[in-house]
Structures are given as structure tokens and as C-alpha cells.
Write a structure and sequence with these properties.
heterodimer; A: 113 residues; mainly alpha; 5 helices; globular; B: 127 residues; 2 domains; 81% helix
């Protein structure tokens, strides 16, 4: 039930503010569902994969997706994700939390100015 | 040519962030698509959803191998979020976006402080 609420909120915020669902899912999994850092971030990424798939299909039907541009940034990103997930396994929970908090704070500041 | 290389590099960085923190990477994808590749905001937001797919699936697959993914919760989150997106699209047309954006910015700062504080004090985890 709690997960349904978190998912709904993530979808809502991502549609309202154009932020990825992950920036909402990860904090809520950490603070509300009391997940540890790695499961919270891994589970969020799997959920993001599903959400983006549906979003990409929806927008594609409207003809707003540029596949070539998506490949230019998306394929290097897949390689980056392998590096990122491997790096995550090496870092302490506390380091991950504080680095993620810094990323959120930077996003928050960007939305304010 | 340089624009393509720059966009590819930024894409790679977005992928690292996605794998590291479990976020989509749209944070970097959208500005890269608009500023470096010259897409409009709408096209960039739509395209970033396709661009994140390889990283999200590869990252989730790696995380599954590391034993970190909780599959059922991920499914529940994903399905519920799709419902939330539908609701969000309706609401977005009714409310002043600028005010909401600022409120959300403040909310993110509060949440960031809370996560940092919790990490600092040493959290008690649910098993």
C-alpha cells in the first residue's frame, strides 16, 4: 500500500515538474519505507525503466521522440550505468546517502532560481 | 561533430549517475538534448524518456545481479507511477507551474537535509 502511494506520488511529481521518477522514489524508499541505500536505488532504477518505457511509447505515438538523438546520449549512458552500478557496490551507505542528498539539494536550488 | 562527442560524454555521465543513485538521468539528458543537440524542450523531454531506457534496463540488470533489486516492489512502484503520471498531466494544466516549481525546490532541499542528517546519525534499517 505504501509502495502504491510512493509510486503514485513519483508519477505525479514527474509529470508536474519533469523530474525523473527516481528523484522522488529514492527519497521515499529511504525515508518512508526504510530501505537501505543500495536496494532503494536499485529498486528505483528498475521502476524508472518501466515508467520510461511507457512514457517513451506514449510520446512516440505523438511523434515527439527523436530516436537518433536518443541513441547519441542513451547508448553511452548504458555504458555509464554499468560503471555507476559497479561503483555503487564499492561505496559505504553513508557516502551514498550524503552524495545523493547533495544531488537533490543541487536540483532543489536549480528549481528555485 | 564536437556537439555529438560532447552529447555522448554527457550521456555517459548521466548513465553513471543513473547507475549510482537509481535516478533516471533526465536531469542531464534534457539540458544536453536542448543545449547541445538543439532539440526543443518538448522534444527533449520526450526523447530523454527513450534515451534513459538502455541505461535503466542495463543498470537494473546489473543491480539484479548484485542482488539489490526488489522485483515486486519495483513492479508495484512502476505501475502506480504510471497512474500518477496520468493524474499529473491533468493537474499540470490547472495550476500555475512557476509557484509549484519553487515549492518543489524547497521540498527537495528539506528532503536532502533529512537524508544527510539520517546518514550522519547512522540509520536504523528495516530488515
Amino acid at each position: 500500500m505504501r509502495l502504491v502511494a510512493i509510486g503514485l506520488l513519483a508519477g505525479l511529481f514527474s509529470a508536474l515538474f519533469g523530474v525523473g521518477g527516481g528523484t522522488v522514489v529514492v527519497p521515499l524508499l529511504l525515508l518512508v519505507a526504510h530501505y537501505e541505500e543500495r536496494p532503494a536505488m536499485a529498486t528505483s532504477l528498475a521502476a524508472v525503466a518501466m515508467i520510461s518505457l511507457v512514457g517513451a511509447v506514449t510520446y512516440s505515438l505523438h511523434g515527439e521522440v527523436k530516436p537518433a538523438a536518443a541513441a547519441v546520449v542513451g547508448l553511452p549512458a548504458a555504458a555509464g550505468a554499468v560503471v555507476g552500478t559497479a561503483l555503487q557496490q564499492q561505496l559505504a551507505n553513508r557516502t551514498l546517502s550524503i552524495a545523493f542528498a547533495a544531488l537533490l539539494a543541487a536540483l532543489g536550488v536549480r528549481m528555485l532560481v | 561533430m564536437w556537439a555529438l562527442i560532447a552529447a555522448g560524454c554527457l550521456g555517459g555521465v548521466a548513465g553513471v549517475l543513473a547507475g549510482l543513485f537509481g535516478v533516471g538521468g533526465g536531469i542531464l539528458f534534457v539540458p544536453t538534448l536542448t543545449l547541445v543537440l538543439g532539440l526543443s524542450q518538448l522534444h527533449a523531454e520526450a526523447t530523454s524518456l527513450l534515451a534513459i531506457l538502455p541505461a535503466a534496463f542495463v543498470g537494473a540488470w546489473r543491480q539484479r545481479a548484485y542482488g539489490n533489486v526488489r522485483l515486486r516492489p519495483a513492479l508495484v512502484l512502476g505501475v502506480a507511477a504510471i497512474g500518477g503520471v496520468e493524474a499529473g498531466v491533468q493537474i499540470a494544466q490547472l495550476l500555475p507551474g512557476d509557484v509549484l516549481r519553487r515549492l518543489f525546490g524547497v521540498l527537495m532541499l528539506v528532503v536532502a537535509a533529512q537524508i544527510a542528517w539520517r546518514a550522519w546519525r547512522g540509520p536504523a534499517y528495516a530488515s
